[in-house]
Structure formats: C-alpha cells, structure tokens
Design goal:
14 helices; binds guanosine-5'-triphosphate; alpha/beta; binds magnesium ion; 330 residues; 7-stranded parallel sheet
Length: 330
C-alpha cells in the first residue's frame, strides 16, 4: 500500500490543485476505517477556510433522462466561460448495478479530458448514509481545490434525492417529454425539492412534445407551490444536451435561484440548516458503524435475527438485547 500522507501535506496539495492529491483525499473520505475517519476529519478541518465558495447544484432525473450528457455539455460550456467544474455522484445502488450514475465515461468524454474538470463516480456502498457522507465531504475537497461549480448527480428514485438536496444550493430536475401523465413515476416529493426543472431532449421531432410537457409541468408546479406561499415560482424550461439549445437559459435559472437565495438571506440559512442536519447524520452514521462492529452485538446478532424471523422472539425483545449488548461493550 502507498505510504499514507499526513493530513497537513494532503491539505496543502489539495489547495494547490494537485489532481493526484485530490484523488487521494477523495479516497480517504470514502473510507469508513476508523483511522481513516480520524485523518479525514483532520483534513476537512484544515480545508474548511477554503470551502463554501462554489455554486453547488444537484441534478436528478430518471435513468436515461440525460443527466450525464447534460453535465458534459453544460460543463464544457462553463469551462469555456472560465469556470472549473467538479462532478460527483450519489448512487447507493452502484455497487449492485455496476454503477449507472456517471458509470459511462464516454458520455462525459469532453469533460473527463479537461484539466478544468474533475469527475468522481459515486463511492460504492449500498448504505445511503455512507455514500452521501463521502460525496458531501468530496464536495468540500473539490471546493478547496478551486472548483467553483459543483454538480452532484443522482438517480431519480427516492431517498438519494433528499440526501443530495440536503447538500446543494440548487436542485435541478431533468425531465423527459410526456412519458405519461403520472409524471414518469417521479414522486411528488421530488418535484417539491426541485428549484429548477428542465425538460431535456427537446430536439428534432421531440421538441414540440417537450414544450407541451414543460407547460404541463408549469401548471403542476403552481399547484404544488401554491400551498407554500413563500416559495418562489419554480422555472420550467426545455433544453437539449445534444444540440446545446436552452442550456444557457438553464444555467441562468440556476444563477437566478442562487441570487434569490443570497438576496433573501436563504443561502446562509439553507447552508446552516444543512450543517446542523449533517452533524446529526454523522453522529447517527458513526453510531451505526460502532454498533455493527461491536463484538458483543456481532456475537448474538445472527441468532437474534433467526429467533425474530421464526417468531420465537419479538422485534422489541430482540432490539433490547442488541442494545444491551452494545451498551455493555461501551
Ligand atoms: N435526443 C437526445 N438524446 C439525448 C440527450 N441527452 C441525452 N441523450 C441520450 O439519452 C441516453 C441517456 O443519456 P445519459 O446521459 O446516459 O442519461 P443519464 O440520465 O445520465 O442516465 P443514467 O446515468 O443511466 O441514469 C443516451 O443515449 C444519450 O445519448 C438530448 O438532449 N437529446
Ligand atoms: Mg448518468
């Protein structure tokens, strides 16, 4: 194994923008080994003064909506304007499916080759808490390394959206034209999270349908948002990641949302609440890890699971025994 760098050297090299060290720092925060966690904590403390300045955008949409293609096209445009782009992902299923989110490097060829971009696929693991933690910490490393625009991709299937919305300033939802009136199985909860919506693949024969879908979504969003009078209107746009049509408008909508947050003081409020929630999720994750590693818990877990499955023991009794064993170990 490569020699471990001390956090101070690693932090220095990350801030200097060394790609090799950024990669090592990301690997470090992705690890759940207790000594790695200690080093990661130290690293993040050192990096903290250099974080917080990027535009943080979450992007979600059903598989195949075009998220990777979109990020590639948008990222290439932003680089041309002088930005530096970091792309991260939250995909708790990636260890099982072989990695769909960002898995396909060819979709991000242009971006992957640019010195002004850094793409990191989702850390593996099917435990959302751990994956989200690594991505959030990865985002801070990218900011410290001078990337001013961070995109976090996730698949539109559920809890991972909530995790991503909890770490970004603007949540962008990529939709497809009319795959049905049920809004393509996208849950209402995900529409509620969206700060900007764009109907992608608005090109060729599809362009008209995309505009119709955008109008329908505008109405749907009015209904959703009217219950919450304080919230601003969610813009619904159309774009094509292929032709580039509409991409500038989507970026402008992201910036407008950010300005809105800044003007109303919501940006610092949003980030403060995210920090508070993050603190508790770190505590919860750490406790869960300790619990799983506890020798006394390990010794009885299998038998208890079996006993509960077979109805010999109630879930309440089983939980009591596990917690007793855990507290005894502490
Ligand atoms: N016509 C058209 N096709 C597009 C556009 N954007 C993406 N595609 C195609 O749609 C397919 C899926 O694109 P991806 O970028 O991989 O979609 P994704 O949302 O990242 O998919 P997952 O990562 O699997 O969730 C690919 O075949 C793309 O070439 C677009 O703007 N127009
Ligand atoms: Mg993708």
């Amino acid at each position: 194994m490569r020699q471990r760098l001390d956090p101070a050297t690693l932090a220095e090299q990350v801030v200097a923008g060394s790609r090799a060290h950024i990669a090592r720092a990301l690997t470090l925060v992705e690890s759940s080994r207790p000594d790695h966690r200690d080093a990661a904590r130290e690293l993040l403390t050192l990096l903290r003064p250099h974080t917080g300045n990027a535009v943080r955008v979450g992007i979600s949409g059903v598989p195949g909506a075009g998220k990777s293609t979109f990020i590639n096209a948008m990222g290439t445009r932003l680089i041309a304007k002088g930005h530096r782009i970091a792309v991260l992902a939250v995909d708790p299923s990636s260890s099982r499916s072989g990695g769909s989110v960002l898995g396909d490097r060819t979709r991000m060829g242009a971006l992957a080759e640019s010195e002004q971009a850094f793409i990191r696929p989702s850390p593996s693991g099917n435990h959302l808490g751990g994956v989200a933690r690594a991505t959030r910490e990865g985002m801070l490393i990218m900011e410290a390394a001078g990337f001013d625009t961070i995109w976090v991709e996730t698949v539109g299937v559920g809890q991972s959206e909530v995790a991503v919305a909890g770490m970004v300033d603007t949540f962008l939802l990529l939709m497809l034209a009319r795959s049905g009136d049920q809004l393509q199985g996208i849950k209402r909860g995900i529409l509620e999270l969206a700060d900007v919506i764009t109907v992608n693949k608005a090109d060729g024969e599809n362009a008209g349908e995309a505009r119709v879908t955008a109008r329908e979504l505008t109405i749907a969003m009015k209904l959703i948002r009217s219950e919450d009078a304080d919230r601003r209107r969610t813009p619904v746009l159309t774009c094509s990641a292929f032709t580039g049509d509409g991409l500038d408008d989507v970026w402008q909508a992201v910036l407008d949302h950010r300005h809105h947050l800044e003007e109303t003081g919501s940006l610092s409020e949003r980030r403060a609440l995210q920090q508070r929630d993050w603190m508790w999720s770190l505590v919860t994750d750490d406790l869960t890890t300790s619990l799983r590693r506890s020798p006394s818990v390990k010794a009885i877990a299998r038998d208890l699971e079996r006993a509960v499955e077979q109805g010999e023991l109630s879930a309440v009794e089983g939980a009591g025994e596990i917690l007793d064993a855990f507290y005894k170990d502490l």
